[in-house]
# Entry
Amino acid sequence: MQNTPDNIYVLVILGMAGTFLLVVSFIFFSIRNQNKLLRQRQHFQQAQIDHQKELLRAVIESQEAERKRIGQDLHDDVGTTASGLRLLIEMFKPGDDVKAHQDFTQSTKTIIDKIVKDVRNISHNLSPSTLRYYGLAAAINEHCTIINQSGKLEITLVNNAEQALEKLPLQTSTALYRVLEELLNNTIKHSGASKANINLNMVNDTLHIDYADNGKGLTADVELVKKGMGMQNIESRLLNINATYLLEPYSGKGFCIKIESPIV
# Structure
């Protein structure tokens, strides 16, 4: 009977030791899991920071490319034409020949008209007046009409969100216009497509833009496509207006992107 209290004490001590070990183990695993979650959160935040840096770099590179293009347009179009006008004026010798004077006048007028047209086109590319004065719907329609008339691409535009587009602020309208402009330029330059479709629809308070072409489509690696400067430029513009986009999976049947932009 003497051993009974001793056995109880031993059991109590073993129970306390087991409980202590369980508590220590629980604390250890809790700390370990918290550290793991913290590292995962840090990796996720770092990935977000890196992604933001990539978007910023794409915007800066895009702006530099745009400046270079504008400078080249001014040099090649306006500068060259103005130099030709100067040369024509220098070569002209006033005299009594009426026909020569008329030809000179007509030539100078033609050259000046070309300069005015080139400057207007460059100005339109920088800031479309139609977008400012008549809204996004008119600007998209005008841009699609110009491309259709050029024969480079056949565009079908279906606009079921006319009233909603009129309410968009200029910043949102400009961003969406530039996105569609970028998509159309990519289709013309890289896809080999002959047709493109743009559908605009309203669902509740969200503008849905579906863009598709019948070109060669994306590569199978969508993530690689997203890292391209064109898509990063598009993503940065959409991010600034709280819009989202979804690239359709590669199917070999053309390119397709769905954009959703809140209008409130």
User: Anything to note?
Assistant: Residues 38 and 44 are 10 Å apart (CA to CA).
